[in-house]
Amino acid sequence: MILSLLGGALGTLLGIGAALLANGFVTKLLGPAPVPLFGIIALSAGFSMLVGIVFGTYPAIRAGRLDPIEALRS
């Protein structure tokens, strides 16, 4: 879960940074750019955590059902 949260936070920071860098260009072409809302950022971080939990738990459950000796042999 921590790895998912860190990945989501890094992606959010990169997205905000890219938006701030492109702000001048977008403003010249389209007018004032919208400001990202905190709720949208929190939703994206929560979705990142959910994806990490779901896709991390399923393989762990499958691996936990294997016999360790047989898993090492294959």
Q: How does this structure look, described?
A:
This protein is mainly α and 74 residues long. The chain has one domain (2-73). It is 84% helix and 0% strand. The protein is built from three helices and no strands. 3% of the residues are buried.
How many strands in all? 0
In round numbers, the mean pLDDT is 82
**Gyration radius, in Å:** 20 Å
Please count the helical segments: 3
- The arrangement of helices and strands along the chain is HHH
How is the main sheet built?
none
The proportion of residues forming helix, as a percent range, comes to over 70%
Q: Give the total of domains.
A: 1
Strand content: under 5%
Low-pLDDT regions: none
List the helices and strands and how they pair.
Layout lengths: L1 H29 L7 H27 L3 H6 L1
Labels describing this entry:
mainly alpha; 74 residues; elongated
Short description:
This protein has 74 residues and is mainly alpha-helical.
